[in-house]
Amino acid sequence: MTDTPMLLTPLTLRAATLPNRMVVAPMCQYSAVNGFAGDWHLVHLGKFALGGFGVVMTEATAVEERGRITHGDLGIWSDDHVAGLRRVTDFIHREGALAAIQIAHAGRKASTQRPWQGHGPLGEADRDRGEPAWPIVSATDEPFDARSIVPAALTNAEIATLVGCFADAAARADAAGFDILEIHSAHGYLLAGFLSPVANTRTDEYGGSRDARMRFPLDAVSAVRSRWPAAKPLFVRISSVDGASGGWDLDDSVAFAGELRQRGVDVVDCSSGGIRESGTLANTRLGLGYQVGYAREIRARCGIATMAVGLILDASQAEAILRDGAADLIAIGREALYDPFWAHHAARELAPAPQFSRWADQSGWWLERRAGTLSRLGIPHR
Fold first, then answer.
1. Known active-site residue 338
2. 272 within some domain
3. Is 83 helix (H, G, I), strand (E, B) or coil?
4. CA nearest 214: which of 242, 246, 255?
5. Active-site residue, from 30, 189, 206, 294
6. DSSP-assigned letters across all residues of 338-350
């Protein structure tokens, strides 16, 4: 390859220039205390900036306290949360990356245990260790599954209040120094629950037709855009299909993406599933890049930039997705947990003359000399 790999090419969105097309996907850590970012978040997110990613995104960050998935979720429902997040963004910026935040509300999937504690609804054992359940809300009073806590159906007035919570969160995210904001409207959480006819059986102006089911999510997007600086990009993560029979499908997502574009959204982050299962689409055949087709279709039909995610494992696969026109950005999740320097390794794989100039001086200086030593010894190395 003689030309510059697309994966390493900057992308300008509004006034922000992403140094490359590699984004750390939002991944819940469940390690906050009362919503506050701490040392774990500084090190967890900071290592990806050191690892060469162009954009480092936080996990789902709750816009109100009852919108947390677990007691360990990050929060941005209070001005008090700003300082801890600012500490993280300052480090990310010093290492040359852009800082992104995903704001969210868990809806009927709130008030649950951390995955390694059972991943079920909070119960007596959780209460005994100081983490009691809390009341939750959704489009209706139908629980996520048979063992989940029963939510209260949101009133119209409460929906309006929540729209304000999303907007306030955007203003706090700006104060915390984030360059990009993503609204979580996927995986069966609150906004996705309103979109899907499987979860939203309301008969008022927020339920029934697709336009009515989109009303609350679109109101939240408009409110966020009004408080998020015009110079800063806005992303929305969606479940391109929600995985349920008779549920939200790709044509729905195309229609939704068109509305998002009109409201000032710059990138649609194309995931899937979660309306009936705990994670992404569990009832389809998985494979490498299994969600890339959604990003391609939405990009082609809506003329909006997309981000591809889902079992993208190596640089050549990511580069092919971009060159094929399927997406504009590549989100790397669990693979980044396995290899926080994935972006640097991708650059060395794709560049015609791999060097360590992209690495921080504290590492690159030594690695360059180590590479020379290994070459002289005839020892293969990356």
1. no
2. yes
3. helix
4. 255
5. 189
6. H-TTHHHHHHHHH
Q: Give the whole-angstrom CA distance, residue 81 versus residue 372.
A: 46
Residue for token digits 């979109």?
A: 195
Give the CA diameter of the chain. Answer: 73
Asked whether the predicted pLDDT for residue 278 surpasses 60, the reply is no
CATH number at residue 181: 3.20.20.70
Q: Is residue 378 part of a domain?
A: no
pTM, whole model, 2 decimals?
0.96
Question: What SS3 state is found at 57?
Answer: strand
Alpha carbon 122 to chain centroid, angstroms: 24
The pair of structure tokens assigned to 260 is 């998002």
| Model confidence band, residue 243 (pLDDT cutoffs 50, 70, 90) | confident
Token pair of 114 as six digits: 């951390």
Residue 345 lies in a domain: yes
- Total Cβ atoms within 10 A of residue 199: 26
- Please count the structural domains in the chain: 1
Q: DSSP assignment, residue 308?
A: E
User: Euclidean distance between the first and final Cα of the chain, in Å?
Assistant: 17
Q: What number of residues does the chain have?
A: 382
Cα–Cα dist 293/316, whole Å: 17
- Distance between CA atoms of residues 227 and 6, nearest Å: 32
